[in-house]
Amino acid sequence: MRVLFNLSFRYKIPLWGSLLIVGTAAILSSTMLLRSYDELKRDVLRNAASQGRTLAHTLLPAVLQDQVWRAYEILKSPLSANSPGTPGQPESLLVLTPQQKVYVSTLPRTLPMLADFRQLSPEFAEVAENIALPVTDTSVVEPRGSAYLFVVTPLVQDDARLGTLVQIYSKKILRSRFIENTQQAALVTCLVLIVLLPISWYWGQRTAIPLVRITERMEELGQRMPEDLSAGIYDYQDELGRLYQAYNRTLRQLREKALIEQEMIHSERLAAVGRLAAGIAHEINNPLLGMLTSLNTLRRHGDANARTLKTLAFVERGLTQIKETVAALLVEAKVTSRNLSPQDVDDVRTLIEPQARKRSVMVHWTNDLAGPLGVSSTPVRQLLINLLLNAVQASDEGGKVDVTIAMAGENLSIEVVNGGRELTEAQITHLFEPFVSADEPGRGLGLWVCYQIARQFGGTIDAKSEMRDGRSLTRFNVVLPTGVTQ
Amino acid sequence: MTTRRKFLGGCVALAMMPATSAHTAQSLRVGMTPALLHTQHGLLGQWRLYMESQLKRQVVFVQRDSYRETIDLLRLGQLDFAWICSYPYVYLRDYVRLVAVPLYRSRPYYRAYLIVPERKPRISNLSQLRGKVFAYADPYSNSGYLVPRYQLRMAGEDPNTFFARTFFTYAHRKVIEAVADGLVDGGSVDGYIWDSLDMVKHEITSRTWPVSQSEEYGFPPFVAHQAVRQDDFQAMQRMLLTMRYDAQGKAILKALNLDGFTLSDDKLYDNVARMMAAFGGD
Predict the structure, then answer these.
(1) Model confidence pLDDT, tens digit, residues A396-420
(2) Which among A235, B173, B250, B263 has most CB atoms closer than 10 A?
(3) Which among B168, B170, B182 has the least Cβ separation from residue A108?
(4) Pair (B97, B226) in one structural domain
């Protein structure tokens, strides 16, 4: 039994449906059959009673005048009128004398004249008891376990009992008609089942398959993010349909959560790297400035020979390089400067022009800024320059870079798109970390600077690399809040 | 019996007078015995038309269910002619004239057959049917009533108590059917009827078993009422006697399973009269 309940819905629902259909069909048809059997029997008995009354009426004069042959002919008349084998056809008829002897019968060989009816068979004896009752109308006698029905009509003339008409009906014909009906009903039921069962099976499958799919996906959920359930599988508004929608909604939320978690991890790492870099830079900057001051003092006031001076100059150049590197790491966006204006964008354009020309890269500008914005111009210029230099570097020779600067609500939006090589997932993950460089020359601090500036403004920067129409497009998006709507 | 005949004759004479004058002018009334096969209505129709064409008279056939009714009609003068059984002929001898006697198998005789259901071939004579159920044809039938009763009496039995149960079917054919169906254990029938039925309805006669035949008796005759005019009598007699010489008459005779008609006298029925006398006032 448990095995049955453990079955997949894919089989359980259709099976259950089929079972219901077959069960209903069986119960309905058997009820109807039993009813039709009863009705048939009732019809037979009703007809028999009416036939019995008519026959008795006709038989009376014959019996009264002791015309046996006439009585025999009358008895045989219902037998010759109907074709044999119909349920309404009596198997035999007989007239009994008041002494329960056979006066005449339609089966003279088995029910011969003068024979004692009671002694012909035990069931006849039971019928005879009934016949002996002083009844005046037709009655039905059905001995227990008998294969026959007896319809008994007294032959009465002026309250004198002249004899009894007995019509004997075989239940065999009723039964064979019942079996015939059963066969017909079975045939019709089979035809109905042939139509209904596939429909039930189909509906069962339609209900079960979405359940099966959703179960499979829920089981996957622990290991990996499953796919969406296609709405086409079950596009209805019942509980199952709503379960689908809820599942898809939950899945979407889970995906978003996973994405946010990933981004948080990423930005936390960048923040840690930034803190580390800033800490190291500060630790280096203090002794570095002291060393540079000392070198300067020594060169100005000391009496060093030419070789020493040359060495000092070498050391100073080295220390200066360290200072620049450290300064680059320590991005300071909160420098107070004038507000950014459209003119600043044009300046950057002018500054980038030589680099672009050198690599034969076309830079296409779209500048939608209308007036000054409430953000410092210097860091934004620095950010823009770094992004553009990076894009020009990343572009192939003769490539194209699209720059779009616009306002989106209160935010300044900068989009830089280049057609250089597609970036891998790993490259994008580490793109904004310091000293990370794909293959272009430079220290690999450009994008780090951009990231730091964007973060310090409370904005965002992200990169996406995708293939479109057979070309790779790498898109950098910077959003900086300005606090005002232009 | 003589007394009774006279009494009956008186009744007939009274009843006959207006009837005779009323109908002889137009049509001849011919009573047909139920000794014939009951179903041969088509054949009787042909015979009637044949008679009309031969006699140049309108002929009406009168059929009744029992011999008794035909006897009564004849006695009352309601019939001019009749084909009646040998026993009624002897019974009515004073009121009718013998016109002609049919020739069966070229002779004016027939026999009574004792028949039993096919399943009882071990029975070979009437005395073995003691205490059984027996079917008679008609209380005025020679072969179907008088003969078996006379045989029993000759054997020293009382025909009224010999059988457990007897009844009349009022036709020889029905006696054959009663025996065939096994309704009765035996019956006595006109041999001519059994032979004729055997030719057309063998499925009925095949279920019966003729176990014995009686002696010969004069064949049921064609009779005329005493009151029939001589020319009518002669015309009818001539028609019957010459029937077998023309094609149409021959065909009808063939269908009746007869060979023709012949002249005969009362002596032919002496043995029937003897049997009747044996039962006295019956």
Answers:
(1) 888 889 999 988 888 889 999 988 8
(2) B173
(3) B182
(4) yes
